[in-house]
Every structure is written in structure tokens, then in C-alpha cells.
Amino acid sequence: MKFPESNTAILSRRDEIVAALRQIVPDGVVADKSGLSTFDCDALSTYRQQPLVCVLPSNREQVSQVLRYASAEGIPIVPRGSGTSLSGGALPRADGILLGLGRMKRILEIDYENGCVVADESGLATFDADALSAYHQMPLVCVLPSDRHQVSELLKYAAAEGIP
């Protein structure tokens, strides 16, 4: 598999990009080589490439600011859920920002009557929802029965398809 050609102008601005992202997400920027090796592939480990930087926002406002910054600067973004590769793989770009959504786990509501957990963020893992359901002794229908790891894969697909 051939990865896209890296934009050398973006690569040359790496330090500036990392600094700007640290202003947006102070506690969620991975920029050192050893830390980035964690994100060089997802469960589809045949293909590996280290991202320029990985950002781990903890709320929607941070995601919005990162996307605004990347758009204004012309930097590619690759979204990543839990790295299960079930939605086609989150292969990073050497000249891009890997946007990890795993820290975003806020639950808005637990609907006991209908057995639903309503989350407004994409990092809630189905095994977390399962644990909640077991604790509260309510049945929970998993959105993706084959995916017992991450609800975010469905949300990434919906976002890619323009589904609100």
C-alpha cells in the first residue's frame, strides 16, 4: 500500500503546529516519537505510519478548535476511535493530525425504561455501556453486536456519511 505523499511545507512547521495544538488541548497532545508509535497503526497493523502529531481532546469545543485550526492551516486530519479498525482503519498521515476521540466519554442520560445510554461524545466504549447496564440491571442492546469495543466506530461512520 502506498501512503499519500507528505506535504513538506507542513512537515517543516511541525514544532509550530505542536505548540498551537498544545494551546488548544494542553493535556492531550502526543508529539514525542515513542508516544506517537502507539498511534502509527490501528488494529490493521499491516500498515504503519507515524502521524505528525496526535491530539486527544476531551470535549467537543476542543475538537471544534482543532478542526478550525487544521482547516485554516491546511493540515490533514485523520479521526480515530479506539483503533479497532472496524470502520476501515484510521491510518495516520505523516503530515497530518491524528484526532483521537477515546477520551470523550460523557454520558448525558441513562434511559432505564428503554435500556439506552445516551452519550453526546464518541469515546464511550460499548463495554463501558455494558458495565453500566449490568450495574443497573437493565438490558442493553449493543448498537454493533460485532463490535464489543467501541461505539465511536459507528459515530465515525455516521460523521463520514454526513448523518447527524
Q: Can you tell me about this structure?
A:
By secondary structure, the chain is of the alpha/beta class. The chain is built from six helices and six strands; from the N terminus they run H-H-E-H-E-H-E-E-E-E-H-H. It has helices at residues 8-12, 14-24, 33-36, 60-73, 126-135, 152-160; strands spanning 29-30, 53-55, 77-80, 97-100, 107-111, 116-119. The strands form two sheets. A four-stranded mixed sheet has the order 1-2-4-3. Strands 5-6 form a two-stranded antiparallel ribbon. The longest helix is centred in the middle third of the chain and has 14 residues, at 60-73. It is globular and about 55 Å long.
Query: Which sequence of SSEs, written as H and E, runs from N to C?
Result: HHEHEHEEEEHH
- Let me know the largest β-sheet: 4 strands, mixed
Unreliable segments (pLDDT under 50, ≥5 consecutive)? 141-150
Strand content: 5-15%
Secondary structure layout:
Blueprint: H1 8-12, H2 14-24, E1 29-30, H3 33-36, E2 53-55, H4 60-73, E3 77-80, E4 97-100, E5 107-111, E6 116-119, H5 126-135, H6 152-160
Parallel strand pairs: 2-4, 3-4
Antiparallel strand pairs: 1-2, 5-6
Annotation keywords:
alpha/beta; 13% strand
Write a brief structural summary.
The protein is of the alpha/beta class. It has 6 helices and 6 strands; from the N terminus they run H-H-E-H-E-H-E-E-E-E-H-H.
